[in-house]
Design goal:
Elements lengths: L8 H26 L3 H20 L3 H18 L10 H16 L10 H8 L13 H13 L5
Helix pairs in contact: 1-2, 1-4, 2-3, 3-4, 3-5, 4-5
């Protein structure tokens, strides 16, 4: 349950900041359409992260869930565990549009179904060209096993 109060100055400041972040997100995605640039990905990540943080503070579960999924993909791109592909852009726009819809709704999207967008983002959770979906819980096991397994000569 959200603790939002539209009369609260802190919440209203968050809504202004979220609107600015959404604008930055759209601009960044548009830039990525023209050409890939890690600095643009970093900017997009910061915008999504800002929204996620505020959503967490105000307990806006749907905003937080969607921005978390989006942030995970962007973090993977930044860390080079996920390869950027142009086919990601429509899903990025969908996520941005859904966040915009939540921002503009009276209940901050608490009734919006975000499952298909989250699933669209999830399909990109692959590691550097490996077409196997990577469960988040397995990442640490993979890292640990790589350290334990001696390399063949």
């Amino acid at each position: 349950m959200s603790i939002l109060n539209s009369q609260d100055d802190t919440f209203r400041s968050f809504l202004v900041e979220m609107g600015e972040s959404l604008q930055s997100m759209e601009e960044a995605i548009s830039e990525l359409e023209k050409s890939y640039d890690i600095q643009v990905v970093n900017s997009l990540f910061r915008s999504v992260h800002t929204i996620k943080g505020g959503a967490g503070f105000f307990e806006l579960e749907k905003v937080q869930d969607l921005s978390h999924e989006f942030e995970n993909i962007l973090m993977g791109i930044r860390e080079e565990t996920i390869e950027f592909k142009n086919e990601m852009l429509p899903v990025f726009y969908d996520a941005c549009d859904a966040l915009k819809e939540m921002h503009e709704s009276e209940n901050c999207g608490s009734e919006l179904n975000i499952d298909s967008i989250c699933q669209g983002l999830d399909k990109f959770k692959v590691t550097n060209g490996n077409n196997t979906l990577l469960d988040e819980s397995l990442k640490e096991d993979i890292k640990t096993n790589k350290k334990k397994t001696p390399k063949k000569k």
